[in-house]
């Protein structure tokens, strides 16, 4: 029997919501945790349960491999560092098992030097796991099985839906999630006939109506015309006509008001987690949702970003609601790690939610995605509330390349944020992206010249060329310079579908190489590798010492320590904590009545630039030493 938490009601449908690999092992599905109370509240539902199939999959693989394959191997695939590996692993369950080395995907990845030894073992194990899971679902008598699909969950979910329909065609299968947005959902429904329904858009609006319709089919007498009429009125739903043709209803324009989104129910996950062998060394987290959409993207959609799809409009829950949801989750599940699913921090929370969380006095460890031009005071606000990790969307350290991206931030502001994160002990996860149409070597040479001075700051996790993704401006507007070469060839080796169908199904596309030449990209990658290699032991710290600043520099083999004692030098360096243009720095020195003349200021800036005490971004300079508070 599936180990789940069930919410019982009086009659009708028995519903199972399934989270397949490759969802995170250490976190519940926010989507299913939110849909659980919605389904439970429906008068069409007798009971609803959530099954985290990702957890028993990890257990199963670990047991079958006699412990050689564990949670870290699962996470390596789930992170998506190598495109479509997770999809390929379960393609054996969807299309039939072959020798992994003989598949087109394996050949393609091996030619790129990717080691698929562990994924190949998983590939061999996937069919049996899916068959056994489907058998259990059918034996447990569920009427409706809903699956959520994001990133590499497509083929695992499709494989399970197919196997369930083989065993019992009467079970109604429903697929939803980010992979079903727009034309993708219609293509999935059209090409995989074992999917009875696909939900495009926010399921909170669709699921209750669909369940009522399915209950009416099961318990009431009505003709096909009445059924078709009812289904055709559900915006965002794909369904099948009497001749099994796929019918995609139009996407609705109504968005779910965040105030009406129910508090998620995580109990199914924590019940499952408690019985999972592979997760014993993991620390579970709770995922919280404050808002949806992106307020920056509404104004200036970043050229490479395909997130949010058809739902860019930003809206948020009231801060009081979010506070109560966090408080309840921490008290109920005894966890302190809180991960916000929001694509961008609602800036209003800085004045509402954060102070309330700080007043709790709990040792929370929270994660947020933020815009990278946050001030020191705003970062301090986050740190005081318990935010220990952020994803600031830095993406690059060249102001011109950031302008090409429409990021609304400069290179020196990104450096300032990295410095302030080090001062406040907030870990910023970021990637350095390159390969943007219009970027040149001149955009990167100043950065390459200064990389050795940045080693005390948090380095990027990865450096990589951008990918062309659906819903991004680069995808929608060829005039921006990305040349679309069609669906990713790697995905084409996994999905056995015609190119014209893949055009509407996949998220990632191949494109003509753009941006800087290969030799410069190699130099950049080597520079970042060096940064990562020496970062752990590097520091550049400034400390108040009387009226001066004592600076400790341990970024090189020969550490050094010195003091800035000249009054106008001290004023200038503190002024550059915020980052200033030459003119703005001069104005600050004049305000402090210590301006020595423009030539002297230029000479000092050149000296500090040469010794790596400041980062230079065209006419702007920003201090690199950590440890100082400033307004």
Protein architecture, described:
With about 625 residues, this protein is α/β, with parallel strands linked by helices. Helix 14 (about 355-360) links the parallel strand 12 and strand 13 (about 365-370). Helix 2 (about 55-65) packs across helix 6 (about 115-140), helix 6 runs parallel beside helix 7 (about 155-165) and helix 15 (about 375-385) runs parallel beside helix 17. The N and C termini lie far apart (about 60 Å). Mean pLDDT is about 95; it is low at about 5-10.
pLDDT averaged residue by residue: 95
Task: Give the N-to-C terminal Cα separation.
Answer: 59 Å
Number of strands: 26
List the quaternary state of the chains: single chain
Structural class: alpha/beta
Count of DSSP-assigned helices: 25
Weakly predicted, low-confidence segments: 3-10
- Strand order, main sheet: write it out: 1-3-2-4-5-6-7-8
Helix percentage = 40-55%
β content, as a range? 15-25%
Largest sheet: 8 strands, mixed
Notable features of this structure?
about 625 residues, alpha/beta, 8-stranded mixed beta sheet, 5-stranded parallel beta sheet, 25 helices, about 15% strand, disordered N terminus
List the helices and strands and how they pair.
Blueprint: E1 6-8, E2 13-19, H1 30-40, E3 45-52, H2 54-64, H3 71-78, H4 85-95, H5 104-111, H6 117-139, E4 144-148, H7 154-167, E5 172-176, H8 183-191, E6 197-199, H9 203-219, H10 224-232, E7 237-240, E8 246-248, H11 267-273, E9 286-288, E10 291-292, H12 295-299, E11 315-316, H13 319-333, E12 337-340, H14 353-360, E13 365-369, H15 376-385, E14 387-391, H16 399-405, H17 411-424, E15 427-428, E16 431-434, H18 441-450, E17 462-465, E18 468-469, H19 473-476, E19 484-487, H20 489-494, H21 499-505, E20 508-511, H22 518-535, E21 540-545, E22 548-553, E23 560-564, H23 567-575, E24 580-581, H24 582-591, H25 598-611, E25 614-617, E26 620-623
Parallel strand pairs: 2-3, 2-4, 4-5, 5-6, 9-12, 12-13, 13-14, 14-15, 16-17
Antiparallel strand pairs: 1-3, 6-7, 7-8, 10-11, 18-20, 19-20, 21-22, 22-23, 24-26, 25-26
Helix pairs in contact: 1-9, 2-6, 4-6, 4-7, 6-7, 8-21, 14-15, 15-17
